[in-house]
Amino acid sequence: MTPEATLVISSFREFFFSYGIKIIVAFVIFLIAYYLAKYVFKVIEASTRKLKKPLKYPNTIQLILRALFFFIAAMIVVGMFNINLWPLLTSLGVIGLIVGLALQQPLGNFFSGLMIIVTDAVNEGESLDIGGVSGTIYAIKLNHTVIDTWDGKRIYIPNTTVWSSKVTKFWPKVARRIEMSVGVSYALSAEDLKRTMEIFQKVLDEEPLVYKGDNYSKEANYGPVSNYVTFDGFGDSSINFTLRFWVLRKDYFDAVKSVGIAVYRELNTAGISIPFNQLDVHVDGKLENILFNSSKMEDKT
After folding, report:
1. Packing angle of the helix pair 190-206, 252-269 (nearest 10 deg)
2. Torsion over CA of 50, 53, 59 and 65, rounded to 10 degrees?
3. Per-residue pLDDT, 207
4. What is the C-alpha separation between 98 and 121, in angstroms, rounded?
5. Shared-domain flag, residues 132 and 49
6. 267: pLDDT confidence band, cut at 50, 70 and 90?
7. Residues 7, 74: one domain?
8. Do 164 and 188 fall within a single domain?
């Protein structure tokens, strides 16, 4: 073996024993930090499940735990390599000011995200509208709030926008009221109008998917509700009523469909018609003269 090869092997051995083992240990430390973050999250999730209090920010908590454990792991690795960060931090004083100005928007998003979490402004899994974007909250990250829209898109909204925008929650409680407008013909008598309102109320009272306020519980956000029919006035082509009724979140679409079908069926059974827009065309004598003259021209040819 040549002296050069011996020197290279000797240098490699010295580097391996000096840094190689530390690099392997550092990798193991980060791996342990990753699995510890997952384990702690599972413990938190199990604890909230036992307390029957659902975890509001599962994805966000996972992200924070991972960042926390990785930061601790990084500090351990820095200490293991005997790296003195003080001179580096001192030299970065002026640079830090410049970087801080450059990162003003990301920092604003970060602190807005903290305010969203602390104030419970929005929660993961909620159906809502933020500044015209509607969907379900997937996660609240450090800089963005992630929304899955109704048509399958995933949109990242900066937390500063979420914090400063108007937020409309579609299901703040378990039940939500629906308004269904129905018009009937002017040909009906006063007694028929009274019977029409009774039919509407009967549909709301007998439809099982309409929430009646059963199982009242403040903890479950259930409460007493009122399902009723209102007279909305005389329209251009119909006498208008509105059915106002409550439904549970899981029954939303099925309830609307069932009530609509029941209303149509009951009105047909009672012989009460629902008017619709019609266009009447009136033909005067001028058009008949034109047609007559056209037919005479054809006979001559």
Report:
1. 140
2. -60
3. 93
4. 32
5. no
6. very high
7. yes
8. no
What is the longest distance spanned by two Cα atoms in the chain?
121
Residue 27 vs residues 38, 79, 300: alpha-carbon distances, Å: 17, 14, 102
User: Mean pLDDT in the chain?
Assistant: 78
- Find, among 127, 124, 158, the residue nearest to 138 by Cα: 124
**189 and 117, same structural domain?**
no
Q: Which domain holds residue 126?
A: 106-169
Residues 156 and 180 in one domain: no
Q: How far apart are CA 142 and CA 123, in angstroms?
A: 14
CATH (domain of 117) = 2.30.30.60
Note whether 248 and 258 are within 8 A (CB). Answer: no
Q: Is 135 left (phi over 0), alpha (psi -120 to 50) or beta?
A: left
Two structure tokens written together for 228: 């009723």
Q: Tell me how many domains the chain contains.
A: 3
